[in-house]
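Researcher: Next entry in the queue.
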Amino acid sequence: MNALWLLMGLFAGAALVAVTARARLRSLVAEAARAGELERELVKTRADLEHERALSEERVRNVTDSQERLSASFKALSAEALQASMAQLTQLARAQLQTVQAEAKGDLDKRQHAVEQLVTPLKEQLGRVDAQLLRLDQERREARGRLEAQLRSLTETGERLRSETGALITALRKPNARGQWGQMQLRNVVELAGMVRHCDFSEQSPLSGDDSVLRPDLVVRMPGGKHVVVDAKAPLQGVLDAYEARDEEERARHLRDHARLLRKHVKMLSEKAYWAGLDSAPDFVVLFLPGEHLYGAALEADPSLIEDAMARRVLIATPTTLLAMLRAVAYGWQQERVAESAQAISELGRELHGRLVKLSGFLATLGSRLNSAVRAYNETVGSYEARVLPAARRFADHGAAGGRELPQLEQVTVSARTVDAPEPAESDEPHEQLTALGARR
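Model: Structure for this entry, 441 residues:
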């Protein structure tokens, strides 16, 4: 449709340019007609001048004839006087003829120059119009070529898409291919939710049923050791037939078949009872439809399908609803990891608290012993000053000190700071506080 509108726009633009060029060309043609009229007037003027020149020449011939007649008539008269008169008359006629020819030539040049001044701009404008028309025609050809290339590309893309769609529909009619496609779509949704295979979910895990071994398409692990079973083997035959229907009645009939097959599959899943083979599993199974249109087509033909499926403990989910459910499960795992981290932090805190109690006891013992050492030091210094130092000073009085004085010792008056050792914790208050902090996070 966009290509059609583009083609119509190009044709409309070309038509507008053609109308504008036609109006301009009409104006130029009018000016060219005017120039032709001026040229015709110039030709007429030239003809008039030629006529006047012919008349002048005729006059000259008449004068010459008159001269000859006068010469013949007055031949008897003085030959010199007649010759002088004839020469003067001839000179006068020639001068008059030259004047007339000069005036005619000047008028002709002026008119020719005026015509050239009018015609030259018209020639230039006509040249520009021709160049513009050529450029517009070239652009139109190029645009048409591009449009044809785009139309060919769209046609090829449509044919390729139609072929691939037909191949996909043919492949989806096979149960194995349909099941693999549903499982692939289910895996894409699960990975989009941020879950990891073999950690948050498993595929085709065997479950022991009443009579045989069941293999659900997907088992999602939930916090607390619970599991949710997801089945992806949804029937698609009715929808595929509806896509190829030739009229609305046939389409409605195939959609009713699709709803009937989906209801039959719901009943089969309910009878399998996947939840019976899992510990701590909710008593329902999720039926995954790989497209929103599949669910909408079934509900259009059978609006009571939702209630009947829920009554049979089957939850029908589309990619959107399943993604929301898996995101909720992922959030539950996140909260579970936060709670486990809070528990580990609480245990580390309790262990650190016990070690701090022991360390404070050691520090208290060390402080007590430091105080005892200070007291012993002070007693030793007192005994030194009272008993040893006086005798040593008498050596100095007798000149036996060797020039060196005994250092003055001072008693230590600072005692070690008392450490208040905390009692060992007997309650779980730190653990409860850390758990609450982890839950808030």
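Model: DSSP finds nine helices and seven strands in the chain.
Researcher: Noted, moving on.
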